[in-house]
Each structure stands twice: as C-alpha cells, then as structure tokens.
Amino acid sequence: MMQIGIDKMGLFTPNTYLDLVMLANARGVDPDKFTIGIGQDQMAIAPLSQDSVTMGVNAALDLLDGENRDNISLLVLGTESGIDQSKAGALYIQRLLGLQNARAFEIKEACYGATAGLMTAYDYVTAHPDQKALVIGSDIARYGLETPGEVTQGAGAVAMLVSAQPRLMVLEPQTTVHSADVQDFWRPNYSKEAFARGKYSTEQYIDFFQKTWADYRNTTDRTIADFKALCFHLPYTKMGLKALRTILPEATEAQQADLLARYQESTLYSRQIGNIYTGSLYLGLMSLLEQSQQLQAGDRIGLFSYGSGAISEFFTAILQPNFETQLAAQKHADLLAKRQQLTMAEYETQFQTELPEDGSAFEIDLTVDPSPVVLTRMKEHERIYEVLTQAVKP
Ligand code: HMG
C-alpha cells in the first residue's frame, strides 16, 4: 500500500527572546509560577522584520533541493497571524522559495491550521503520489503587556514536506476529530492581540483531548500500550502535561514513566520559544525526535492537535528506518543558542512598535536580524520582502 507522511521538517524562530524569570520579576510574580506552574523559561520575540511570511520561508529553506523543488504542487500556510485579509501569505512564500505554480493558499483555524494543512496534504499526495506538498505553520502569539497570557507568547514557524514513501514518518489513516463552536480564544479583525478566557480554554483543551482520545480507542483496537510517545499542542508546556495525566492511569507504571520522559523531551524547544500557535504541536514533535535517545524505527507516536474555537484531532505516525538522517538537531541547537536576550525595556518597545498603516514609506532596522529572509520595508501599503542569502536558488 502507498504510504504517505512527513519526509522532512524545518524550524525557524526569531533571533531575539525574553527571559521569563526577568518577566516574572518585572510583573511582581514568583518566577516558579512561570517556570514550573506554566512550564516556560523563555519566549521568542519577533522583530518588525519577521512576520508569518518570512518566518514560514525561513523554516522551509532547508526542505528544498534540486530534486523535490519541481514536484511541490501544493503549498499550504496555516496561520492566525496573516498579513492580509485577501491575498494568501502562501503566494509570497512561493515566490521567496523560488517555487512555481503550486496550489498555494492560506488556511485558518487557530492553532489547528497547520494540521488542517497536513491532512489536506495527506489527501492530496494520496491522490497524486508523484507530487509533494509543503505545509507551513507560522505565527506570532500576542496577548499584550501585563495580561495573564503575556507569559504564553512566542514566535516561530515549522515547515513540513509531505510525500509518498516519506523518510521521516508515515501518517496512519485512522484519525479522530472533535469540533464545536466554543468561545475560548479569539482575535477580532480590529485587534492585534488575542482575547482568551484562560481557565476556560484549558478546560476545553482537556475536554477535547479526552473526547478525541476516547473516540480513537473506540474506533481502533489500539490502547495506550501501542504508543511510544504522545505529542501535544503546546500553548505552554504544562498544558500538554495536564492532558497527558488524565490518561496515564490506562498505562502500566513502567510505561507511565516512559511516556512522561518522552513528554519532557517533546517540550524542550517550546520551553525556549513559547507558543507558536499553528506550529506548536510540530515544534513538540521536532523536539521529541531530535532530543530523545529512546526512539526507534517502527515506533508509533500519537499527535494531539487543538485549535481554539474549537477543533481537535488525534492522529498517529510511524517512524521510518534511518529517520535520524532527516533531522537537524545541531542546526536547531545553534538557532536557539545564537539568539540575543532582550531587556524588559527592549521587549516592551519592540512589542509596542508597529508598522505604518497609512501607506507611508518605512525602512525596517535590520541590524538585529541575521535571518536569511526578512521584511525590509513598507511602501504604499505593501510589504517588501528580501532574500539576503544564496541559500534560495530559484
Ligand atoms: P493564570 O491565571 O495567571 O495562572 O494564567 P494560574 O493562576 O492558573 O497558574 C498557573 C499555574 O501555575 C497553576 O498550576 C498554579 O498552581 C501554578 P496548575 O494548577 O494549572 O497546574 N502556580 C505556581 N507554581 C509554582 N510556584 C508558584 C506558583 N504560582 C502559581 N509560586 C493561563 C494561566 C494559562 C490561563 C494564562 O497564561 C492564559 O490565559 N494563557 C493564554 C491562553 C492559553 O494558553 N490557553 C491554553 C489552552 S487553549 C489553546 O491551547 C489554544 C491556543 O494555543 C490558541 C489557538 O488555538 O490559536 C491558546
């Protein structure tokens, strides 16, 4: 049978971050609340030169080569930080990556957007096995200064190349979905910051997890014993843990310890980057694959996607022989290690500085941003992007 899945994954996060102990001290909060209670150490802060388009391109750069470039005929950008109400960010991304004539579009359903893209790509490649799909989740999470959500902000993107006979992981066809109209988190068109009913959103997340997990167990003959690891959408790293704990009693004691250890490995990148909305589940997956020494080909990994509003999907993947060769742990360690720490004043200024909305010309300061692809300026209501590296060869 033709097998479809993820061949390779790419990651990008901006070059600046805020230390959350510093944030706790500035806000008069016990730092343990942030580092233990919420489970976050740092959060990425996007400079003006990074948006959902540039971060998506920067994440996808490593996935392209001379061989696959011509076969990518579907390009989906999942984002809730879109830069335009009409034109899809995917079209800028297609040009900046030197791709052509793809079904390129943007898709929105809160943090579920990249999963919607992945499932669409799965169906597309099933129907066209000689073609490939590029799925990107790219977001800047903003709740506002001095809000309860402030500590759960972040910025970054994940890109996934979906193909037949994938070298990283095969996606299995059985998935379960739960969706309902729920007002837990939203961002009206006129607002740059999200509104969240914090406690309610965490309850909905757990409820949706339990429903999709129960459906999965009832519609397949699988149990928790069939899983080597479970990855969760990670708005903050304590959130997935709360959900995981609700089903741990279904496992033996030894397996509980293993699942908890794998869970911790899946949270290492998110702890330093924060919530990247659409990419967060896949950031957790990359962290697990690159940081765990316990995984083997043939292992089954469960993935729980949650997008406020709300929709959840539980799906599974099987690691492929030599999957390690498709990973880039050192590159991602460097990406994180080279970041600059912001002071509170720099963070607050960066947070409050906005691009002009009146059509005036504006040059963006690029001195803090060494990324290959950047937003350089605004001109007559247009964003002008530039590729500053030879890494992109159209
Ligand atoms: P809060 O109300 O300030 O925090 O906001 P809290 O009082 O609930 O405390 C948090 C935890 O810290 C608690 O642990 C405390 O006990 C603990 P828990 O009971 O939850 O296990 N704590 C301490 N621990 C150690 N030492 C201490 C200490 N003090 C307290 N001294 C909240 C927390 C997450 C609600 C807030 O940050 C928020 O509103 N965030 C945004 C919403 C969010 O992330 N929701 C998650 C579920 S919805 C989702 O995942 C979708 C989303 O990604 C969007 C999308 O789909 O697009 C958000």
TrEMBL record:
Any single GO BP term: acetyl-CoA metabolic process
The Hydroxymethylglutaryl-coenzyme A synthase C-terminal domain, residue ranges: 261-352
UniProt key word Calcium: no
Molecular function, one GO term: hydroxymethylglutaryl-CoA synthase activity
Keywords, comma-separated and alphabetical: Acyltransferase, Transferase
Lineage: superkingdom: Bacteria
Binding site residues for (3S)-3-hydroxy-3-methylglutaryl-CoA: D30, Y143, K242, N275
InterPro entries membership: HMG_CoA_synt_C_dom, HMG_CoA_synth_N, HMG_CoA_synthase_prok, Thiolase-like
Record carries keyword Lyase: no
EC number: 2.3.3.10
Active-site residues from the entry: E80 (proton donor/acceptor), C111 (acyl-thioester intermediate), H233 (proton donor/acceptor)
UniProt xrefs under Gene3D superfamilies: 3.40.47.10
SUPFAM superfamilies reported in the protein's UniProt record: Thiolase-like
Stored Pfam families: HMG_CoA_synt_C, HMG_CoA_synt_N
Domain Hydroxymethylglutaryl-coenzyme A synthase N-terminal per the UniProt entry, residue ranges: 3-163
Family (UniProt): Belongs to the thiolase-like superfamily. HMG-CoA synthase family.
Protein name as catalogued: Hydroxymethylglutaryl-CoA synthase
Organism: Latilactobacillus fuchuensis
Gene (name only): mvaS
